[in-house]
Amino acid sequence: MKCSRYSVLNTSKSSGYFRYLGCGQQLWINQKIQPEQLLVVDVVDSNISTADRNILINPYDNTNIPQIQTTTSPEVETTTNVTPTIEVTPTPKEESSQNQQLISVLIANSLWEGYLIGQTFSTIKIVNNSLINFVMKPNLDIQVGETVLLYYDNENQIIGEIQDYNDKTGSVVVQSSAIMGSGSYFIWKIYRV
């Protein structure tokens, strides 16, 4: 199974949908995309499409961020750079015998990619630049100083650095550095990035 990365850009002022078969997935995904949002997805072969002419699908190239063309009058044309808001694509790592899950997240033009370490077993509240305490399984391969992505869903994520991990109890402390979303949620996935 060959997987390829595609960028999907919504150039309109309203949300739309595209459809794709995610790498390592067996079912097609109908993905909503917000106005002027850029998503990057990992796709099996070329199984990606949309019926919306305002949604542009292209092979992904991180050196060339897509642009939206807007016309203010018949004589004047302006170009606006699109700021990617978020991009999340869970996919399994094909070459791994443990079939680890890969996630890709684009926050503030920084692409974060990582492999699943495990899940939390306590509630996490999203607060920027603070210490976050939670519990995972004991005896995991986690090191102080590692950067991790705490992922609840496409709208709620935290990037941070491991400050402490007790391999006997599974207790973890993370210093958050970038957040997306708000609220408190139970059962997060933790990725090494």
Widest sheet: strand order?
A: 8-9-10-17-13-14-15-12
Radius of gyration using CA atoms only: 19 Å
Q: Which spans have pLDDT < 50 for at least 5 consecutive residues?
A: 64-74, 76-99
Number of helices: 0
Structural class by sheet pairing and helices: mainly beta
Distance between the amino and carboxyl termini: 25 Å
Provide the number of structural domains.
2
Mean pLDDT: 76
Question: What is the CATH architecture term of the largest domain?
Answer: Beta Barrel
Helix content: under 10%
The profile of the biggest β sheet is: 8 strands, antiparallel
Classify the fold: give the CATH topology of the largest domain: M1 Pyruvate Kinase, Domain 3
The CATH class designation of the largest domain is: Mainly Beta
Strand content: over 45%
What is the number of beta strands? 17
Give the overall form.
elongated
Order of secondary-structure elements: EEEEEEEEEEEEEEEEE
Could you write a compact summary of the structure shown?
The chain is mainly β. It has strands at residues 3-10, 16-22, 28-33, 38-49, 55-59, 67-71, 77-81, 91-92, 101-107, 110-119, 124-125, 131-135, 147-153, 156-165, 171-180, 184-185, 189-192. It has 2 domains: 3-81; 91-192, M1 Pyruvate Kinase, Domain 3, CATH 2.40.33.
Structure overview:
This protein has 193 residues and is mainly β. The chain folds into two domains: 3-81; 91-192, Beta Barrel (M1 Pyruvate Kinase, Domain 3), CATH 2.40.33. The chain contains no helices and 17 strands. The chain has strands at residues 3-10, 16-22, 28-33, 38-49, 55-59, 67-71, 77-81, 91-92, 101-107, 110-119, 124-125, 131-135, 147-153, 156-165, 171-180, 184-185, 189-192. The strands form four sheets. It has an eight-stranded antiparallel β-sheet with strand order 8-9-10-17-13-14-15-12, with no helix packed on it. It has a five-stranded antiparallel β-sheet with strand order 3-2-4-1-5, with no helix packed on it. It has a two-stranded antiparallel sheet with strand order 6-7. It is elongated. The model is unreliable at 64-74 and 76-99 (pLDDT under 50).
